[in-house]
Each structure stands twice: as C-alpha cells, then as structure tokens.
Design a protein that fits this description.
The chain crosses the membrane at residues 27-48, 60-81, 101-119, 140-160, 180-205, 225-247, 293-315. The protein is mainly α. It has one domain (17-316). Helices cover 74% and strands 0% of the residues. Helix 2 crosses helix 3 and helix 6 (149-160) runs antiparallel to helix 7. The model is unreliable at 1-21 (pLDDT under 50).
Length: 317
C-alpha cells in the first residue's frame, strides 16, 4: 500500500463525518438550557428553611453555579445524541448481546461508584444549617452524572471493538474510533469542570453559615476541593490512558502491516515518506503523554480544582 492508496483510504473516511448528522437548532438548545437551569434552580431552592445564610450572596452563587452546570450537562447530552447514534449502532454490530449487557453493568458500577464517593465525601463531619442540603447535593450530582452514562458505555464498547474491522476498513475504523474517543474524553473533562466549579462555591456557602469561622473552615478546608480534583484526575487517567494506549497499539499494527520492514532495501525515501504520512494521519507522530487529548483530560481536573479553591477568597474580597 503506497501513499496514493493511503490517500484513497483517507478519502473513504467520510464514514467519520456521518457521525455528525446535524445538531438541534439554536432556539431549541437555548430553550433546553434555560428550562433545565430554571427547573434545577427552583428545585434546589425549595424547602430550605429559615436561616440567615439564605440571604447571602454565597447561597445565590452556589444555586446558580449548580443549576447552570446541570443545564449545560443536559444541553451537551442533547447536542450529542445525533452525533453518537450512528457510531453507537456501528459499535453495537460488533458486539454480542452478552457483551453489551456486560459493558452496561460495568458502566453502571463505575457511575454508581463515582456517585457514592462524591455523595459520601460531601457528608464528612458536616451538618448544614440549610434544610435538606444533603438531598440537594445528591440531586445535583445525580443530574450531572446521569448525562455521562451513555458516554462511558460508548467509550468502553468502542475500546472493546478496536481491531474488529474488515481488513480494507482498518484505517477508516481507526479514524472513526479516534473521533469517538476524542468526543467521549472531551465530554468527561467538561463534566468534571461542571462538577468542580460549584464545589468551590459550595465551600464558600459552608463558610458563610453562622458559627465558629475556624471550626467551619476546619470541617471544609480548601484542600477538599483539591482532593476532588485529584480524585477526578485519577479517574480520568484510569479511563484515558488504557484506551488511548490500546488505540495506538492497533494503529501501530496497521502501520507495520502497510509499511513492513523485511530488508534494508525496503527503507527507501518513498517508504519513509509514506510511513510518516500514515503515522501523522493516525496521530502517532506524538507520544501518548505529549498527546493534547491525554494532557487535556488528565490535567483539567487539577487545574479546575485549583481555580475553584480560590472562589471563597474571591467572594470575600
């Protein structure tokens, strides 16, 4: 397979583009964002009881940040339905019913584990003066987390089907899988940002409650926000690195198949140019740790948590 054949294979990749079959109109998107945000704001506000903290700016900031985060998460889910439906169908045809059920169970366990961790972490030695605050926090986490369930399932099934293509569809399959991985991992990073930003506002709200300021600060230190970021960093690294590594392994197998090295005479200028071109198309020209996708998904939680930790200080200034 020479350079022209590689080019022809690339042109057959319009199979990737069909994953984008049109987004909902801007009016519908705006309506969804405003409706979900307003509904969430109303739900987290109702039945809060009577306490002085309800009249503070921190109470408004947290409700607004949490509600906007839920609205953005569901808007992102709406925008992605049409994008991912074709890819999900193609992945599904390569898996048996038992495989799909197994990955669905794994997805449920992963999402439930993250939810329980976040919920229990938010209850550590903290008694809110706001009525039913624990339920409000659980509802917000659940509303954001449920939007990531289809993406986790699609990521797992896509990584499981790597290499299960017809020989003449390997390049198109790899490029399509890469597009799916990029979308999934980008969504995870955005969901993490949506989850961490309100955490800084939540700490500011906790400190605004009536009581001993030092005791309140000890019960919800700024380091907790950083720990949330570290937790998400570990989760995203555990998801990102193995999947990207598996994809790169399949991509290198294709490169070795198309441009094998059997004798020294094979190492011609055309062979070198063709191999480098194919490696560039398959994003193999950069190491896994230097890949922007890896850096983005792994370091986004840490950077966001550091910024979110400054929210209380900014609010007080």
């Amino acid at each position: 397979m020479d350079g022209s054949t590689t080019h022809a294979a690339e042109e057959s990749v319009p199979g990737r583009a069909p994953t984008t079959t049109g987004h909902p109109g801007p009016v519908l998107q705006t309506c969804v964002l405003l409706t979900v945000t307003a509904l969430t704001y109303a739900l987290v506000s109702v039945g809060a009881g009577r306490t002085s903290v309800l009249s503070t700016r921190e109470w408004f900031v947290w409700r607004f940040a949490a509600s906007l985060g839920v609205g953005l998460a569901w808007l992102m889910a709406l925008r992605s339905v049409r994008d991912l439906r074709p890819a999900a169908r193609r992945v599904g045809t390569r898996l048996t019913g038992r495989d799909r059920l197994g990955y669905a169970l794994v997805t449920a366990v992963l999402v439930l584990g993250v939810f329980l961790f976040l919920y229990n972490a938010g209850q550590m030695d903290r008694t809110w003066q706001i009525a039913h605050m624990e339920g409000r926090l659980a509802g917000v986490v659940l509303a954001v987390g449920v939007t990531g369930v289809p993406w986790v399932y699609l990521l797992l099934t896509t990584s499981a089907t790597l290499g299960r293509w017809e020989p003449h569809h390997r390049l198109a399959g790899l490029l399509e899988s890469w597009d799916v991985l990029v979308r999934c991992l980008t969504v995870f990073a955005v969901l993490v940002v949506i989850s961490l930003v309100p955490t800084g506002a939540l700490r500011a709200l906790w400190l605004a409650q009536r009581g001993d300021t030092d005791r309140l600060a000890d019960q919800f230190p700024a380091s907790d926000v950083l720990l949330y970021g570290a937790f998400f960093t570990v989760v995203l690294a555990a998801i990102t690195l193995p999947v990207v590594a598996a994809w790169r392994t399949e991509a290198r197998r294709l490169v070795a198949h198309v441009y094998p090295v059997t004798t020294v005479e094979d190492l011609t200028d055309d062979w070198d140019k063709g191999r480098k071109r194919l490696e560039e198309v398959l994003h193999l020209d950069k190491g896994i740790l230097r890949n922007p996708l890896t850096a983005f998904t792994v370091f986004t939680p840490l950077l966001t948590s550091v910024l979110a930790g400054f929210v209380p200080g900014l609010a007080a200034s």
